[in-house]
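User: Batch of two.

Assistant: Item 1 of 2:
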Amino acid sequence: MDAGDPSPLRHFVVAKRSITSTFDQLLEFVKDGSAFVDEAWRSDDLAQVVLEEQRLEMQSCATKLSAIRDVVLRRHMKVAFFGRTSNGKSTVINAMLRDRVLPSGIGHTTNCFLRVEGTDGDEAFLTTEASGDRRSVSVRRARWFQREFRCLDEWDAHLPPPPPPQTVNQLAHALHMDPTLDAGSLVKVFWPKSRCALLRDDLVLMDSPGTDVTQELDSWIDKFCLDADVFVLVGNAESTLMNTEKLFFHKVSERISKPNIFVLHNRWDASVSEPEYIEEVRRQHLERCVSFLAEELKVVGLEEAAGRIFFVSAREVLSSRMQRAQGMPETGGALAEGFHERLREFQMFERTFEEFISQSAVKTKFEQHTVRAWQIAEAIKAVMDAINIASADKKIFCLEEREDQRDRLDFVRGQINRLSNNVKERIRSLTDDTAAKVATALSDQIRSLPVLVDEFRADFSSTQETLERYKTKLLQHVEERIVSGLAHRCSVAVLRDIRDAQKHMIDSVRPLLSQSVQDQLTSPSASFELTYDLGLAALCADFRENIEFQFSLGWTALVTRFIGVANAKRALSSSDPRLQDNSTFKDEMLVSIATGLISVTSRASMTVLVIGGVVCRSVGWRVIAVSLSLYGLLYLYEKLTWTNASRERVLKQQFVEHAARRLRAVVPVSSSACGQQVCKELSSTFNRLTQRVDLSEAELEGNIRQLSFRIQRLENIQRRSKAFRNRATELETQLETFSLRYLQGH
């Protein structure tokens, strides 16, 4: 094959680049999808939208894809060369590499497995299984290395000289027999891609010891052959296929389904010495190899088997190619007759081998991973579909719940407004009823004042100090009895009405409250008591008793009996400047009436005197004397009977009249105050209930906001899950395109 021809191996390189790009996109997509699913799973408000199994599935997909991508990046086309010792396996590889890279020669040369692959650097190096240190491949480089370090004057004599680099021949040549390497060891040779076009396209060549030097064929297969795309059986054209070679490939066929095998009959240049048997020998080798591939191994059909068998001389090809690389003619040197035909056969092998391994490696290396990637994409689509459906169902539920919450909020607001009007009307009615009841009861208590005062008992004396104590106790007694009477008549009924009204409020408000607020709802306090603050001591602060002796037929008594106590004082005070100064009356009309009565009374007295004189003349002085005696006796009797009991009785009468007058004046105020107490109690109860309703409204509004936010989150989940599903479909399309282009039809 001409080095300048386009290599069929590029097919594998392009396919690898394409599938790697797809896997990069798929891995990035799966990582984003896994982060999205994990975020949704960790959201408390999105419970049951993403399940734990789905989250773990996405993480598993990401892990699997990452591993597959790493494997794909390490994938390369691998061809393994096997055959008996000294059949020219290493020479074939060197001829393909166009340089003496691997140890070759007569006898047993290759002591271990040698893996040749390209490196982007300019220096060739090798590594072993035991050590990853790079070692020089070039013998010329090794000698220069030793020479340079020996001539350095400034080298520190105290330091040991650096170890000389080891070459492939030093490590892998059987004649050296490195004790650290055995037939099952591996040496990796990294050859610059710039020096070999064959290695530029991810091709790895595996050289092996002879199949006849060990019995550990099974371990060879397990360790070096399971990932090989093509096997090249290098035979010796001077002999036929041996049982050791057949046994090895029978074992390979047992481990690998239909391995791809090429057969090279090397050293075909030896046939030139017997030209008369060339065709017969060629036909003999061909028939036996076709029978081995098609009938024994059954890895290929009879019509295809011949295309897998080639007759070459690797030594001639290597020599001609190295001469050409040095600018010398290809045919220079000792080349046997028919070299060009054998060179074309070798080039045909290379071309056929490259075309076959490129197509076969793409299928064997990438088909399984492509199917697995497609399965992962399908699994991701299933997860995203499930999330989309779950979020849609959850969204519908949230929309319905939000609508219910809004209806509930509107209902609560409407009901509380109507209830407020009804409660205010009922409070107003109870306030008026309470005021009316208290007014009626207080009026009745005022009418029963004489009885209340009369039943009062206390030490009485006309001294000023005793009188003050007596009046104070009397005021306390009367107020206590009036208050107890009002409580007996009003409090029980009013408190019952208040409890009924409060119960009605609670029963009306309770359906408007949320369950959490209902649990906090408590019964109204039972400590309310209706108070009757009459302030009798203040009302009667101006009470002034008059317990001085007054004759019942005296002038003052008669005037008082005729025009009343108040008017009598006013009228009598008109002749006394001191009384006029101390007068508290403001009404001039009453003054004029009282003065008129006095003047009338004065004229009547004169008339009585005149009439008395006439009567005296008519009846005689005896009758007058008797009358005066009776008048005097009556005065004397009343004077003698004017005791503390009489004084107490008069004081009580005067107090009853004064207190009754004052209490009648405050009946509206006191009854209204009791009504306001009821109004305040009921209003405070309803205010507390409306505060609970406000809490329920705030809770409903908060629920609506949370539901709206949750609906937005669910819509975002739906949108992103659809986007991820569409992206998975696009990646599946890329995988299908790759499969149609590289995996099918070949």
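Item 2 of 2:
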Amino acid sequence: MSSQLPAGDVARLAEIFDLYADTVSDGAKCMSPAAFAQATSPPVLDTSAFFAVADTEARGVLTKDDFIRFQTLLRDADAAAKLSFSAAEPETATLRALVSTDPAASSYLKDRPKISYAEFAQLIDASRAARIRHAFVAADPQGSGTIHIDQLLAIARQFVPLEPTSPISQRLALLSESPDSQRIGYPTFLALISLLSDPSRIRQSAPTASLSPLETVVLNTLASGERGAESATPESISSIIDTCYSALQPVPQAEHKPKPRSGLMEVMFQAYNFAIGAVAGGIGAAVVYPIDLVKTRMQNQRAAVVGEMLYKNSIDCFRKVIRNEGILGLYRGLGPQLVGVAPEKAIKLTVNDFVRSRITNKQTGEIAVAGEMLAGAMAGASQVVFTNPLEIVKIRLQIQGEMLKEAVGSTKAISRSGAITIIKELGLVGLYKGASACLLRDVPFSAIYFTCYSHLKKDVFREGERQLGMLDLLLAGAIAGMPAAYLTTPADVIKTRLQVVAKQGETVYTGLTDAARKIYKEEGFKAFFKGGPARIFRSSPQFGATLMCYELFHRMVPFPGESHELPQERAAHQSRELSSQTALFHAGNALRLLHDSGYKFGAVVPPAK
């Protein structure tokens, strides 16, 4: 009698039953009539009358199986007829009231105390069509074949759920025969009632695949808001369909809202996020650190210096570091980098998410590109308080190998310094040397990066339609890092020159502008992009690995009590919501049908005389 529901829908209905069940029978949770009404009825529709239909064994309470069976019935395409038949099955008196205007149907039912569901559905369809025709004729006493817009709305509301203030009601005048007329012809009237009687037909495939030509015209006109429109956007069509369902609010759902966390749990939650960001950032930094070291040494190499250039290119630099300092030389300065990654990533991600949440449109969930860039820029600016000290210590550790090599054979003794020694030498003010250049690099980098990352996930990898895998996240993060890294290389070159201790004979820079001017004068424009390729090879995989790990760790190790709804779960929820709306739409039609027949729930209908 009814189709099988998907497992996800069954599980959801079971949750709703458990939420509203208010009594126990034979050791199992059950629903009373009042609980049933609360679980199935929106404010504008009282479905409590269907309790007797759901209570197939007349026990006075519903089991979970009863409830799910009833909800399954509601989701059938012909649910209105099936529900009406289940309620009035023993009583052909109800049917006689419905088909009283059809002599042939009345004659057929006269001597039959009971009929099949197939016969019932056929007669109901014919009866409904007849009542629609009679309603039109009653509103057109002059016999013009047209009715006024106000009459159309009044008649339509007898057969379909339609609010007077809805967009559909406001656009009915566009269906009139001419702009100056307020009257609608009979064919258009029939097409409108047919279209609104079952909006689910529009969702089945292409928007107009199952519609008649005139129904298509009516739909396009109502959706686009233009008289005689030949087409309409999918968004506007969806809006019209949603308007049909909005007259019947969806079934009250058991909200999965997280309970407010206590003070201690809030501290633990923030510590959890911090730890996830620290681990993910550490992995990303360690993976690409050798590339970062090569990039730093290439950027610090001057064209006009005393002596011979140490490195011909990035590959030559990589080889010489391994030859002169060993494999561990590629990881010189990694310790301070890892120590700084945790607060850097934490504050960057937190500020970006915070600003995005404040400027995102609450109704549509959309955010403008300018807003995305602003959020990223503020995230980049906030991280400088951590990254500048980290960068200057890291860079000085990375170039120590060069200085030690050059000191071989000279009279000047140079010893290797650790991170603590460098911090003491620099002092608090020295740790923020080159901060202006760091801002000049990190602000545009984050603005470009977070915007590209968001749009790559949504527009290229289709986040929201499916769950993104490891490769999707890695590629999105890596690709977004490419333009962000290369376009901010000039600021990175200037920052590196300001933060490195100049060797004897090298140019000394006094500030951001002075460094930019002297680099251009002595080395030309190309010098601003020194280490650019290495910067791409470092930043691109680092951010790809970092954000991939960050998102995957949240999935694999969720915080206790937190629900992270995945894209396909949101899609499933939307599907269940539509199913719920459809069920209520059918229930409303069934109630309307039985009301028209004069059927009284729970009352004994006297036999026909």
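The chain is about 65% helix and 0% strand.
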